[in-house]
Design a protein that fits this description.
The chain is an alpha+beta fold. It has a single domain, classed as Nucleoside Triphosphate Pyrophosphohydrolase (Alpha-Beta Complex). It contains seven helices and 15 strands. The two termini are 14 Å apart. Keywords: Hydrolase, Magnesium, Manganese, Metal-binding.
Length: 260
């Protein structure tokens, strides 16, 4: 990963770093003719965090994401807690946030009714807007539509924490998911100026050529995906998730990102 320009970062971590907020991010995949593609969004430059960066869909956990009334199918929260090394309530909130944020930012809904998976999300367009505005919680949305959250469509993938020098920090858990059959990812979110599918290697090449900017976790995880020949191969991988906290080293007018 290349060096990045430094703005006003302290040279050393503060004695009391900002507490990292729990966040969930989803690497949404689909099979293409020449390999796996991943859904990416370029965030609006004015965004307070990662403005102008190319990222995966995701965001911070909402306190209502921990609602235990959510209809749930797949690995239980206790299992997710083991995978991510966190408490069961936090694990529940993370999975719910992953489903909610993916729907809000890309229109892809990882939910179903009975044994079926949603194939057409258009009937839920109004609910999507209400989720974005926080007029509606995920639990109330699913209950109102008779839907069940499909945790079995997600896989635990990684855990990255924002460096301690940063004033806005996230403890981000990354999930992997396949685009459900019949659904389409879109870019109808005010948080992104553009969205689309890209081969991981092409996304990295764009960053290397200066056509886009990637945060270290995004770059690293895209690089991991380049070894996957298909979505099925990616989903079948056995992952041991460990928490990664990069260190920022200020060197003159640039900052290096060092991984533990």
């Amino acid at each position: 990963m290349p060096k990045q320009s430094v703005l006003s970062l302290p040279t050393e971590p503060p004695e009391q770093p900002v507490v990292a907020k729990d966040a969930a991010t989803v690497l949404l995949l689909r099979d293409a003719g020449d390999g796996v593609e991943v859904f990416l969004q370029r965030r609006v430059t004015a965004m307070a965090f990662a403005g102008g960066m190319t990222v995966f869909p995701g965001g911070g956990v909402d306190k209502r994401d921990a609602d235990a009334s959510v209809s749930w199918a797949g690995p239980p929260p206790a299992r997710w807690a083991e995978w991510f090394g966190c408490s069961e309530p936090v694990a529940r909130a993370l999975v719910c946030a992953a489903v909610r944020e993916t729907f809000e930012e890309s229109g892809v809904l990882l939910a179903g009714s009975g044994s079926s998976i949603v194939t057409d999300t258009s009937p839920y367009a109004a609910a999507r807007e209400q989720l974005v505005s926080r007029e509606l919680s995920l639990a109330d949305f699913l209950a109102g539509e008779g839907l069940t959250l499909r945790a079995d469509l997600l896989r635990p993938w990684a855990n990255w924490v924002t460096p301690e020098q940063e004033p806005r920090r996230y403890d981000a858990r990354f999930f992997l998911a396949a685009l459900p059959e019949g659904q389409h990812a879109d870019g109808r979110t005010t948080e992104a100026e553009s969205s689309g599918w890209s081969r991981p290697a092409d996304a990295i090449a764009d960053a290397e050529a200066g056509r886009s900017t990637l945060m270290p976790p995004t770059w690293f995880l895209l690089d991991e995906l380049t070894s996957c020949a298909s979505v099925a191969e990616a989903l079948a991988q056995e992952r041991s998730v460990r928490k990664v906290t990069p260190r920022l080293v200020v060197d003159g007018d640039v900052v290096r990102v060092e991984l533990p």
